[in-house]
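Q: I'm writing up a methods section and want to include an example of the input and output format. Could you take the sequence below and give the corresponding predicted structure tokens, formatted cleanly so I can copy it straight into the document?
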Amino acid sequence: MKREVLCVLVVFLAGCLGGVPPVGSSDAPAYPDRPAPLSRDNALAYTTGYERAAEYRDRKEIGNRVELGCNSTLINETAAGFYIAAGCGTTVYGASGGVGNGGPGHGRLYFVNDTTTIRMTPRDAPERSSETTEKRGTAETTLYYSNFDGNDHALTTTLTYLGSTPPERVLRSTDSIDAQQGVERGDVPLRTGTYRITVRLDDGSTVTRRWAVSERSAWDSNALSVYVTPDGDLAVVDRPWIRV
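A: Here is the clean output for your methods example:
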């Protein structure tokens, strides 16, 4: 199985904040055409526009005025395509004058190449099929599992705390992910420090890397994306906040 080389470069594309028509209006922002050929810059611009159109349609405040500030972040660039996180900060003006705000968080994970656009909308994670945990802490962490493959997969995650002697396993779990579906696990409070994360795919392939967990701040987060590529390979990469 061909293994992808992970890219550690994180690129931000400047977003814009502007008023858009009420939800349900015929003037809703259109989904952009996918550029051809794709480059890093136009892939980021494309996913920003795509997320803007999708997020606008996800809003349920019919008749309200919505403003979106959207941005995209390159997560990984491979020979097969681009993995990009895109998100929008929202401001909703209600008919009665109320204002609601929402941040982009980690956004949605996309896979884009010259022929394909896949946008992940992670669902709340079900109960794990197996799990053991010990000595959790207070640092908030999130694991995003995305399966871009056309087949269902099971992924087993092992977290080992490296700040003790000997290193201490603190979590082992198995998640089943349907084809082209995602799962978000934001329920993993850990001690600050360095961990080793090992993810094993059901075909036996594994990825291992270190993960530094710190106290969460406004523009930082303890988040990783674990994803299966359209070709069935496995990757574990950092998942930064989307800045708008």
